[in-house]
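User: Okay, second chain of the day. Same drill as before: sequence in, structure tokens out.
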Amino acid sequence: LLDLEAPPLPCTCKICGKDGVYRCPDCMHQPLLCTDCCCSMHATHPFHRVQQWTRDFFEDSALHMTSLQLHFGHDGAPCPSTSANVQATLSRHSQPAGLDEEEWEDIDYIPLHLRLPVGSKYLTVIDVTGVHFVLSQPCQCMNAESYHKQLLCAKLYASTFEKPSMVFTFLVLDDFLRDNVECGTSGMNYYSKLCWVTSSMFPHLVPELLQVAQQWHLLKLLKWSGYQGNLNGSMKGDLALFCVACPQPGINLSPKANLDDWRYTRTVVMDGNFKAEHMCEWRPDNQVWLMDGCGFMVTNLIITRGAHSLTVQQKSACNNHKVISQASVSHGKLNSTGVGATACAWHGCFYLHSVVDFQKGERQLNMDYSLCNALSYSTNGIQNVICFYDVNCTYMKNLQRQVDNTKVLEIALSLRIMAGIGMWHVHGHKKECYARYSPLFIRGSGWVNSEIIETLWSTLNIVSTSTCGMTSPHCQELLDFQMNDSNFMKMIHLSTFGMEAFERLNEAVPSSQQENWWRQEEAALKDHVHDPSVMDIFEIQLTKAPTVHGVELHLLQTSTTSGMHHGAASWLTHGLVIEEVEIMLAIGQKAIGPNPSDLK
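Assistant: Same drill. Structure tokens below.
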């Protein structure tokens, strides 16, 4: 390691043999090069970090000091319409402009690679290798594209389209997306890392950057969705991915399929997440929405349109659940107390345009809008829906009334919605709710615990801490990107399940018992939608075990017949007699001694 810090001997250029001045740690074997060879060798690697030999040590430097320039519009070649390439000149010992010698002690030392080029146009380039100042020459031809388009052809994304001076490489933007999705890295932390990569000794001297991640999120989604133009003709959820395994007529179902069959039942699960909070904003009107409603999130405007239809606070006939009792609790410093969503209960994919913000608590109006949007997506012809929600025993009683009284809510009349409660939450309800709403007794639900949405919140909460203080558009668009990645990962990891365990269990039950259970099940499932109490037949019918007091009372009341000791008093008397005989036997044994005679 120490030998790598010293220059090679002899200290000459590896290519031409002249005096070596620069070395590149990013290149293999960090070759020592002269100024001209370093410039020509890095024409295709302009964002490497080079070091300059000072006769004492290698000091961080920059490629623009070797007169390296970026040419745009001609595949990296100089533009023929440009009369002469402007070469940047820097004096290594020059002081910052306007520096007074009497005040030099108050000015921080600026390293060479952080000094701005003088006398030529330059770009501030943000790459995974840090922040660079690179000399640039755009194409000056008559039919040349605009400057920001020339930059895009070189895989550089400009922070502004008018006179761009700061650009981001596609590589650094993709790297930030990966860090944000997989590691939950915020934009501030990621940029802080780039500052340390640029200058570990002077990170505070690296200039602040404009945020372009929001635009890059949109461009990536547009590319993946096959858009060429703008979003003016887009529909709700057009830029998001949905579950490929859920039954969707016209997509993964044959037109001849019997959609009334239980195998084509849509199974959804609803839940709220109060970790995804959002703070109130200083300037809520000064915002730009890039993909409003084109992903998973919906805007607050749609929810507030139907707020006038919100009836009095509902009361639960079941246990005192916080979801209901605290539905109207407001928080002054929060613009949103959390989010609510509808997802596929089988595969754990978020539904498009069905993730809502909570202005207060987990109000029914918000969850109604989420459910209605989920049931309207690609369900043409679907007749059966199973909906799981933690408080469905109360929620479903008011759903139809809410839909009828609110203009923004709509559910197809042909849909038969069967209510269910997840296996983990149903045990926190009254006893009657188990048989009425447990997924074990709902035909078509399969062996599902209906709590899969809780696993989705755990990954989404990683980035919720960084979205809390963002603007509403940026927050929602970042959450959209996270949920889209979650659906994509679910899609590529889908697998099939066997039925061997069910078949072994089915073979162990007598055929007569199976027929009897089948008739009872058909009768209960037929009326389940209108009367959940018919599911009470699935309750386990067991006789309660007698208490200890009851057993004692029974023993006392039992009469002794046929010489048998049944009563407690008889057993106690018989035990005392046995104990008395044992005492007499012990006394006699002691009286005769250890060696008794035959007479004794």
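The chain has a mean pLDDT of 79.

User: Thanks, on to the next one.
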